[in-house]
Amino acid sequence: MKGRGVGIMLVLIGLGLGATFLRDQVPLGGAQTAPQPQSAPTPAQEAAAKLQNEQNTIDVVARFEPGLVFISTEDVVAQDPFMMMMGGEQDEVRQGLGSGFFVNQAGDILTNYHVVADGSGQGAADRITVRVMDQDTSVEAEVIGLAPQYDLALIRAPKLARSLVRPIPLGDSAALRPGQKAIAMGAPFGLDFSVTEGIVSSTERQIPIGFSASGGQGITQKAIQTDAAINPGNSGGPLLDSGGRVIGINTQIYSPSGQSTGVGQSAGVGFAIPINTARSLLPRLQAASGGTVYAPVIGVRAGLLVQSRQGELPVGLSVLSSSGKRQLKLPERGLVVGEVEPDSPAARAGLRAGTQPQRFPGGAVVLGGDVITAVDGQTVDAIEDLQAALIDKAQGDTVTLTVVRGEEKREVGLTLDASSFQTQEP
């Protein structure tokens, strides 16, 4: 994670821990027979067992660490005019550090968006350089594609010698099981080409990842949780399994100390973007020509807006009071469809936009149309929920929307087409 203010501070509340304690039981058939003690392992056996796991880690690191990339960024930030009048420097250069890894022989480097983002979090830094293992000098890199909502980016260093490009094979995050070995590579606190080891603690931890189209908090997605030590600078680096295959891209940490110090530190709870998510996005990043790709869309806009300091923001029905929803004859939760774009997947699926605009203190709502309450059984209450349900979908995929129209609840099939995956802000 970078050393500037574009990282994400994650606070988790209400995680419960439980344990089941079992005591040894003597089989009924052996009640009159004293249990035979088992021989203790010899020091040689203990050493062999220990060295087997150690040797596996050593082999994985030796073979695949050359595919790791150390990333540095520089971003020129205009000084405050008042400071300039007082004789201060005209421009400030902010620096950041992170990690990445080669995904193919063409030299494409996968990393986190926040590793290469500028200070505003709305684009790439002014200068990005990369350095590979056993090399003293860094090489300029360029952006191939950005995916802020996924916290992913693809960069490439055209002047890097092809002989130094060492892709790391991609694994299958869908096949992961808690308890599997996890090896994290990266540059914690700028200590480049560092390695830590742990296990996969969870395979489907739901957390906000990345940044929304407006630069705010990202979309809630499934992440891999690991206890392998991850610290600032590890972001964008690979999380590998015991076969040396990338199973995730390190992205966030849970850091209670960071709430008071402002600098996150490992607490044994780190998160990685599943490699299957990155793999499905890779073709779109490669075709982005330096632009930005976004989560799939279906062609609807929210019909419930509330006033904020940033203007009117789209929200879900859960923000309204129960009495207000009863008065408006709306469900408890859901995304009000305020607009349906012509010739979009939503239009072809027959979704209906509201036709009766109505203002209320602090906002406005468009009534008379559909309310989307779920996608493939996953509850929807806002645009972000809709994006989260679609984020791992591909062109041609069909999803089932649960829609409420008036007092009628029905299921609607919707197929994503090319328009769902345009490289433009939704």
TrEMBL record:
Residue span(s) of domain PDZ: 305-407
Domain of life: Bacteria
UniProt keyword Protease present: yes
GO BP annotations, alphabetical order: proteolysis
UniProt keywords, alphabetically: Hydrolase, Protease
Gene3D superfamilies: 2.30.42.10, Trypsin-like serine proteases (2.40.10.10)
A Pfam entry, by short name: PDZ_2
InterPro entries, per database record: Chloro_Bact_Ser_Proteases, PDZ, PDZ_sf, Peptidase_S1_PA, Peptidase_S1_PA_chymotrypsin, Peptidase_S1C
Gene Ontology molecular functions: serine-type endopeptidase activity
Similarity annotation: Belongs to the peptidase S1C family.
PANTHER family: PEPTIDASE S12 (PTHR43343), PROTEASE DO-LIKE 8, CHLOROPLASTIC (PTHR43343:SF3)
Protein name as it appears in the record: PDZ domain-containing protein
Gene source species: Deinococcus arboris
